Amino acid sequence: MLAYELRTVVLLISGILIAAVSLGAGCGGGTPSGKGAGTTTPPAAGSKPQESQEPIKIGVSLPLTGDAAVWGKSQKDGYELALDHIRKQAGINGREVVLIYGDDAGLPREGISVLRKFIDVDHIDALTGVANSSVALAFIPIINEEKLLFISSGASSPELTGASPYFFRTWPSDIAEALAMAKYAREEMKLESVACLYINNDYGTGLVGPFTEALEKRGGKVIGSESFEQNTTDVRAQLTKVKALQPQAIYLAGNPREMARCITQARELGINTQFLSISTLNDKEVLSTVSQTDLEGTIITDASFNPASTRPEAQRFMTAFREKFDADPGILANTAYDALMILAKAIKEANMDPDALAAFLHKMEPYPGVAGSITFGQGGDVNRPIRIASAETGNFNSIVDDYRWFD
User: Fold this and answer.
1) Cα(141)–Cα(138) distance, integer angstroms
2) 406 confidence band (pLDDT: 50, 70, 90)
């Protein structure tokens, strides 16, 4: 059963009545998905089309249940904070913004059901959210067919780059994190042998593949790789095989809860090898469930942001977040916040036409995001910094704030 939550109550009956009146007046048919609703009568020659005052409806697909739910929760917090700020600005061009949430559970089939409801029932104007790359990949054929703009705040698979003219993301491609860690492991840590332990889906393979290629290109060696399934609770068999390889480090890629189990079970098996990992390990749930001793010394690439940053945008975000939630943000809160704020800016400047929105985003001047200046490449990938951090006494502290991972 999918969990759907309306951020603002939208009276569906009123929507149906409005549509009926428009059709009865003999106007041209609206778009099947409801995008661009509100201009059903062609304007007179030389006149400016009158903008609709109906709410702008944005679908937010998130994993609100399952092992990826920690990502969904942090993203939802970021979206809610951004919505507060948009409301303080009287919406977008005077129109109210409505967020319609759907629980994709981090699974493609569930995600498709959520997206079809967004389009066929809710008639959304744009799409955002998604933490899992496999869900985002399942969305691509649909957003192409529907011409629906989609800004993901968490999907990171390299396969998404250029997959659709309507796809953008505020979280970097896995390739950026994988290449950064491979370079750091070889050039700074001087590691020669690494084993990989990863989730068996698009997310895991999208990290391990580029990491392996980049490490070996720099003279290192991946001496073995073991995978585990999503939502698994026992990885001792895989860890036992990794232990026998005696690598200098283990590159770990998965969802936060699963990675927490991997580290805890590794230490239980007497594996004291240093872990190398990814941004999503730096999550409140991981830090609260893995002991400081077990986590100590783990090195991560962090595509999120440094909460202690002195950048004005980061400080404003942290202050507002703490005031609203009385807590620090989770791993994807800032990328969700930036995604909605950038989408609002695009709609304000380019209105609701999906092609105009995409064109605006491609040419957008650098946006002052929470983690740094944001622009988008032609494939929809975000361009912004990555930091290297180390686990010390239960927290990830910066080693390098803006690591130059590219040659």
Assistant:
1) 7
2) low
